[in-house]
Amino acid sequence: MIKYSSYSDIGGRSCNEDSVRIKDIGTGICAVVADGLGGHGGGDVASKEAVGIICGGWQGGATPESLSELIQAAHQRILSLQNPSCQMKSTAAILSVEGDRIDYAHVGDTRIYHFVDGKLVFQTKDHSASQIAVVLGQITPDQIRFHEDRARIFRALGQEGELTVDAAEETLAPGNHAFLLCTDGFWEYVYEDEMTDALAKASSPEDWIAGMRKLHTARVPEDNDNNTAAAVWLTV
């Protein structure tokens, strides 16, 4: 059985540009989290279009290629809605779970984390200036949260030119698996070791999110960004 939960919060902003949706077809689920990029206008529309098109197009039987195609379809839709005064853009992260198989894809700095038996084993790499600084050895991964260029995103739905999507698949080994999809407004204030600690104390995906949100709420400034997360649990 796959268990899941999600939330989205406006934070200290006047508009929530994050979107989240989990589609359940009985034999599997598709979770999508998107973050409209501030400063371009229409971020709320862009993220809603992204999750709507992706979830609407996902019918199970996913592959990395099919998830990439869904992101490309959402990208084209967002491009079609742009005008000179509104160059809307969005990040996107997708997780498809069916049986012991997962497929995932992402663009931007909305992350996917994978925990196995309570331990963090994988997280996606941001398409951002601060992630490049990590690759170059200029900062550590933890310092991404405080890097001066952390808001500079190099890949987004709605960008000019060709969009490259990172996508992969995995057959899950036996064990307890937990996945977390979240926007930068969430992971900037909840550290990976805290995600792990909250997971150890949680009895459900709802509990896990609630535990992390307590940490988040205690730490954010009044004008904090929108914050969104989706949690998915399954045992193989």
Q: Beta fraction of the residues? A: 25-35%
Secondary-structure element order, as H and E? EEEHHEEEEHEEHHHE
Domain count: the total is 1
Oligomer status: single chain
- What's the mean pLDDT score? 95
How helical, in percent, are the residues?
Answer: 25-40%
Q: Main sheet, how many strands, which sense, barrel?
A: 5 strands, antiparallel
Number of strand segments? 10
Lateral strand order in the biggest sheet = 1-10-9-6-7
Which CATH class? Alpha Beta
Structural class: alpha+beta
In CATH terms, what is the fold-level topology? Answer: Phosphatase 2c, domain 1
Shape: globular
Distance between the termini: 9 Å
From the coordinates shown, what is the CATH architecture?
4-Layer Sandwich
Cα radius of gyration in angstroms:
17 Å
Q: Low-confidence stretches at least 5 residues in length (pLDDT < 50)?
A: none
Question: CATH homologous superfamily?
Answer: PPM-type phosphatase domain
Total of DSSP H or I helical runs spanning 4+ residues: 6
How does this model look, in words?
The mean pLDDT is about 95. The protein has helices spanning about 45-55, 65-80, 130-135, 185, 190-200, 205-220, and strands at about 5-10, 20-25, 30-35, 90-100, 100-105, 110-115, 120-125, 165-170, 175-180, 225-235. A hairpin with a 2-residue loop joins strand 6 and strand 7. By secondary structure, it is an alpha+beta fold. The protein has a single domain (about 5-235), classed as Phosphatase 2c, domain 1. Helices cover about 30% and strands about 30% of the residues. The strands form 2 sheets. It has a 5-stranded antiparallel β-sheet. The protein has a 5-stranded antiparallel β-sheet with strand order 2-3-4-5-8, with helices on one face. It is globular.
